[in-house]
Amino acid sequence: MKPDREQMPLGFEFIAVRPHMTDVIDGVAEIALLLQPEHGSGASLTERDRARGALVSDFTAADYRAFAAKYENFYAVRETGTGRIAAFRWLYGPDDAADERDPGTKLIRAMYGAVYVGKQIGVHPDYQGLGLGAAVVHWTMNTLKADVYNVVLADNEKSLQFHIRQGYEALHSFEAKGHARTIFVKRYRP
After folding, report:
1. Are strands 169-176 and 74-79 parallel, antiparallel or unpaired?
2. String of DSSP letters for 132-189
3. Residues β-bridged to residue 118
């Protein structure tokens, strides 16, 4: 059975990201760069960061190339007319070793075992508000057929509200790397 694509807006398509897709990976890296916090990943989020739904990371295109080579669960949304990458999501699978610098994934694995962990989701600022974030969450849930755990920064209001609208439930709060964070889970229901 194919994943449900009914929620994808017309003119966009889902793709599984693979290491040879350098143009796709460069598009993902562009989104991540645009969504980086205004004053760096260790700083408090600004109003601009909260409005965009900041990604608190310093990943580069080289990092995303490594992720595409290492992790199977790396997806993007491409605008069909232009080929431009509009959104992306990558996750750790139950058998994937998480980066040891990632306190949220380490805590999730310690508390809930070998589960899917949504590492990042991002929508290019030019495409926000079109439903692409919701579509990629819906599509990956139907592809994986499993619960997905995420960590959200407590002061990232846009991300918090997005996860709640998508049906994620808050499980546990903690602090790491200068930010209060909340572990959320979205339960898979066929």
Report:
1. unpaired
2. HHHHHHHHHHHHHTS-EEEEEETT-HHHHHHHHHTT-EEEEEEEETTEEEEEEEE---
3. 91, 150
Cβ-based neighbour number of residue 38 at 10 Å? 13
> Which amino acid type is present at position 31?
I
Which pLDDT tens digit goes with each residue over 68-99? Answer: 999 999 999 999 999 999 999 999 999 998 87
Pairing assessment for the beta strands 85-92 and 12-16 based on DSSP bridges: unpaired
Extract the tokens encoding 20: 């040879």
**pLDDT, tens digit, for every residue of 104-116?**
999 999 999 999 9
Our CA angle for 67, 73, 74, nearest 5°, is 55
Hey, what domains does the chain have and what are their CATH numbers?
12-186 (3.40.630.30)
pTM to 2 decimal places: 0.88
How many whole angstroms separate alpha carbon 149 and alpha carbon 169?
9
- Cα–Cα distance between 59 and 125 in angstroms, integer? 18
What is the identity of the amino acid at 133? G
